[in-house]
Amino acid sequence: MELATEQRLSRYSAPYWWRLIATALSFTLFGVGGVFLRIVVFPLLSLLPGDAVARRTRARATVSWTFRAFVEFMHRTGVLTFEVQGIERLGRPGQIVIANHPSLIDVVVLIAFIRDANCVVKQSLWDNPCMRGPIRAAEYISNSGSMDMLDETSEALREGQTLIVFPEGTRTTPGQPPEFHRGAAAIALRGARIVTPVVISVTPTTLTKAEPWYRIPSRRFHFEMRVGEDIDPQQFSAHSSAPIASRKLNEHLHQHFIKELAKDERSAA
């Protein structure tokens, strides 16, 4: 499935006032939808037959479908356009998906296109009334930074789950290159079969760190997601200790993203 030609950036951009209203409506629907899933949908799904894995799979598929509908809503109302390249290579067993984090909706778009993905999410979202239902039903993993988190993520990968991780831990500061923590590399070396980088760019920048949702850009923004080539984590750990291997893999990933994002900046200039 190649979506690069499906949602091309159009010359037309809806008026500012309409995009502001559509953005407000999008976030309202997102919040209401999260509460509706927690109160109505997931309790009903839990009544269906199946073991814990089947219930988790249904919950993740529901979250994925809901997020895909949310992205389509933002597209059709003129808030954004999007382009996705290589998405068919995501969602494989034991795959860790490493992505940069320029905007608030990065995880939404990734989960929208990966039907059965696990994800490391911020601890604060576990108590968010709009998000805690989907997060707990889908059994996502809290980014607590503890050894328990490393054990959970590694075990999920060894079980054959797909795991989404943002090595920055928070959204990229506008105008600055991403800064990767070694946690993602450590997780990959402990349990991943393959590491797949996903480069995300948002033009013009919006929904960035410390930026309110209503500060929308002068035109609708374009969300682009490119899936990179697979990386074998074992090539970094074969002849190195765990700390050295983690540092090498992290640096390799960091340089890959720096290079790819520089290409985006040059093409946008």
**What level of helicity do the residues show?**
40-55%
Residue windows where pLDDT falls under 50 for at least 5 positions: 1-9
Q: Strand order, biggest sheet?
A: 1-7-6-2-5-3-4
Radius of gyration: 18 Å
How many domains make up the 3D coordinates?
Answer: 1
Domain Phospholipid/glycerol acyltransferase: 95-203
Organism: Pseudomonas turukhanskensis
Protein name: Acyltransferase
Transmembrane segments: 20-48
List the topology elements.
Elements: H1 16-45, H2 52-76, E1 80-85, E2 95-99, H3 106-113, E3 117-121, H4 132-137, E4 141-142, H5 147-158, E5 162-165, H6 183-191, E6 194-203, E7 221-227, H7 234-237, H8 242-268
Parallel strand pairs: 1-7, 2-5, 2-6, 3-4, 3-5
Antiparallel strand pairs: 6-7
Describe the protein.
The protein has 269 residues and is an alpha/beta fold. It has a single domain (16-268), classed as 3-Layer(aba) Sandwich (Glycerol-3-phosphate (1)-acyltransferase), CATH 3.40.1130. 45% of the residues lie in helices and 14% in strands. It is built from eight helices and seven strands, in the order H-H-E-E-H-E-H-E-H-E-H-E-E-H-H. It has helices at residues 16-45, 52-76, 106-113, 132-137, 147-158, 183-191, 234-237, 242-268, and strands spanning 80-85, 95-99, 117-121, 141-142, 162-165, 194-203, 221-227. A seven-stranded mixed sheet has the order 1-7-6-2-5-3-4, with helices on both faces. The longest helix is centred in the first third of the chain and has 30 residues, at 16-45. The chain is globular and about 60 Å long. InterPro entries: Plipid/glycerol_acylTrfase (IPR002123). This is Acyltransferase.
